[in-house]
Amino acid sequence: MIDAPRQSLTKAAFYFNKHDEIDAEDNEPPLSSVFTNFIEVSSNLKRLELYCRQGSESLQKEAEIIETFVKANNWDIETWFEIKTGKQR
Questions:
Q1: pLDDT of res. 23
Q2: Measured on CA atoms in the order 18, 21, 23, 24, is the torsion positive or negative?
Q3: d(CA 6, CA 65)
Q4: Assessment of whether the complete model's pTM goes beyond 0.70
Q5: Using 50, 70 and 90 to split pLDDT, how confident is the model at 89?
Q6: Residue 73 parent element (H or E)
Q7: Residue 42 belongs to what H/E stretch?
Q8: What's the CA gap between 16 and 63, in Å, rounded?
Q9: Angle at alpha carbon of residue 24, lines to 67 and 12, rounded to 5°
Q10: What is the pLDDT of residue 4?
Q11: In the predicted model, is pLDDT for residue 88 greater than 70?
Q12: Could you give the residue ranges of the DSSP H alpha helices within 16-77?
């Protein structure tokens, strides 16, 4: 996702229109792995947002992994995740 650390980056927001279930045969790294690597190289990051209009249960689980990772490392990063799944009224 990011080749070089961004020392002045304090907020990152990612917005997706749609996220489908990931097929294990795609060899794609889990989103939680990509985000945790991103957090580790962004030393001044204070807020992380993730919004998905049409998400999946796997994306919700990935968001939970990211939140657990941030809390486990006791980092002062505010997280906001909104992932809509199924039919919304």
A1: 62
A2: positive
A3: 23
A4: yes
A5: very low
A6: none
A7: none
A8: 13
A9: 30
A10: 72
A11: no
A12: 31-41, 57-72
What burial class does residue 31 get, using C-beta atoms within 10 Å of its C-beta: 0-12 exposed, 13-18 middle, 19+ buried? buried
How many other β-carbons are positioned within 10 Å of the β-carbon of residue 61? Answer: 14
Cβ proximity of 45 and 79 under 8 Å: no
What is d(CA 85, CA 18) in angstroms, rounded to the nearest whole number? 10
What is the 3-class SS of 6-30, one letter each residue? CCCCCEEEEEEEECCCCCHHHCCCC
How far is Cα 61 from Cα 46, in angstroms, rounded to an integer? 22
Helix 31-41 and helix 57-72, axial crossing angle in degrees, nearest 10: 30
Tens digits of residue pLDDT in 16-62? 888 776 665 667 778 888 888 888 888 899 999 999 988 888 889 99
CB neighbours of 4 closer than 8 A, spacing ≥ 6? 41
